[in-house]
Amino acid sequence: MSKTSVRIGKGSYEGRAVITLATRALKMCIVTDAGPRIAFFGKPGGRNLLFWDKQGLGRGEWKLMGGHRVWATRPRADESEDAYRPDNGKCSAETRGDSATVISPVDPALNVRRGMTVRVVSENRVEVENLVENQGPMLYSCGVWAVTCTLPAEGTAYGIPLGDGSDWDCFNLVLFKTWGGGHTSGFDDDQVSFTPDMLLLRPKGRETKRMLQAQRGIIAMDAPDCDCTFAKRTGYDRSASYPLGCNMAFYVGPKNFMVEMETMGPELALKSGERAVNRESWALTDSAVGLRDARKLIRLFPG
Predict the structure, then answer these.
(1) Does residue 250 fall inside a structural domain?
(2) Is the pLDDT of residue 173 over 50?
(3) Of 4, 54, 222, 267, which has fewest CB within 10 angstroms of its CB?
(4) 220 lies in a domain?
(5) pLDDT for residue 71 is more than 80
(6) Three-state SS sequence of 125-180
(7) How many domains does the chain have?
(8) Do residues 128 and 68 touch, judged by C-beta distance below 8 A?
(9) What is the CATH number of the domain that holds 140?
(10) Neighbour tally for 7: CB within 10 Å
(11) 110-153: per-residue pLDDT in tens?
(12) Does residue 199 belong to any structural domain of this protein?
């Protein structure tokens, strides 16, 4: 097997300083002057599969920016204010061989910092290790919430394999009627449908949110306009504690301005210097997979 050719360099994307990782099959731009964020992901020369905000959307000090970001869930308050404490500061950055690590400054109120290490695994796969580290003298409890803002085009669909294939096969599904002080969603939403082994999402421009327990840890975006599928997988520990019993979520923004693919790691009590990690494997295919058969997505992640 030939060795994967990886190109790593510094540059800019939409006015932001970035580290670029590229193979023959994929390209990624990791922001270093704010975040940490991944601003671009897609085929070399292709469109950005991620939503990247150019309007300055946000809430107070915090700016949406878009792309892929690292949040922190809080036990029994997964969307508290400090889940998304402002992450606008300049990050430290290091490249080594086939990987890049970007770490935020320490938050002065929470004494934690966030970061990610991206490592190229093969021509069409990267590993994204999302982390939260306690830098204070006291305990800090959290899980690592990895939020990927994607940009849906005409015909874009999303899928999550359901269940674990055992003879006692069930999962949690959380429906949101209202949340965040002003967001609303109906329970009977025809954007969401089910097959025997998949949850399917076809965005139609109406705001909605779902959380679920997905034991296989896979969430995928089928982008026919780019003739590709972007899928990411995270681990799942049946004995661990997750927000509302769920390790995965999606959010559809009004008028389809973005769709978030979210994974959540186990919630832990971190001692000083300890890290919580949510390790994701990202795969980008050469052609659209089609999302009605969970086996096609599972085969993207051998081992």
Answers:
(1) yes
(2) yes
(3) 54
(4) no
(5) yes
(6) EEEEEEEEEECCCCCEEEEEEEEEEECCCCCCEEEEECCCCCCCCCCCEEECCEEC
(7) 1
(8) yes
(9) 2.70.98.10
(10) 12
(11) 999 999 999 999 999 999 999 999 999 999 999 999 999 999 99
(12) no
